[in-house]
Specification:
Layout: E1 2-8, E2 16-21, E3 30-36, H1 58-64, E4 69-73, H2 85-99, H3 101-104, E5 106-116, H4 118-129, E6 151-154, H5 181-186, H6 194-199, E7 213-218, H7 227-238, E8 243-248, H8 261-275
Parallel strand pairs: 3-4, 3-5, 5-6, 6-7, 7-8
Antiparallel strand pairs: 1-2, 2-4
Helix pairs in contact: 2-4
Amino acid sequence: MLDGVTYARPTGFRPLLMDVHLPREGGAPVPCVVWIHGGAWREGDRRFPPGNWGHDDQWFRLLVSSGMAVATIDYRLSGEAHHPAQLADAQAALRFLRANAGPLRIDADRIGVSGESAGGHLAALVALTGHSPVAPTDRSVVGPSSAVAAAVPMYPVTDLLAFGPDGPDGTGDEPWAGPYPEDLLLGRRATEVAGAARAASPIHHAHGDAPPMLLLHGAEDTVVPPGHSERLAAALERVGAPVRLELVPEGGHCFVGADPSPALESAVAFLAEHLGA
């Protein structure tokens, strides 16, 4: 494992780090999965998946045991920078991995992405914008592609306007008691900057050339309702993109209330299949 590798140094901010978990010493280059942590875009840690998923690195070991490398990444949080900084950072991590694929022993053509909650939102955005990247993070690698070959967003936010009073997850008459996480991400109330909110929403980037995507969502999630994944899956199906939706029975946010193992094993199998592990 390579611990604390600097992949970008945005001026005025902390260096952005990644850890790279490798399946073995020597041998042919392997596929790589970029993992993006959750935390409502305002907290979280690249080193720690949700606590109910078992031991701190159990999720990473599950991926590595299937013959894939895993790069777990930092990104600027909403208290540090507003969108699209977070997307730019994730794209910068992908370019860094491709530029350093040889020394890292990863296959630059077989890189996927996954993430949970806010990280699932970024994973979906990365997958849908890889061929149309945003302005690059300052002092990051430029040149290589930021596209991915497969994506597994877990209980992602797919529409930043869905939580507003007129959105599918709003009540229609609720008083605004923000700022909500999506407002902090954008730097303004989402409904006041609807154009920026749509640009930050994966559902508005669905296109027919999207990479294969598996959406995993707890059927009883009340933090990010499953409609987020259902609507994105429907949007991708309408344009002919390869997508699969799996709802976890009795699962809440982070799959709390259900055994997370079947969902995580499904994610590993999907990534291994589409990345050729």
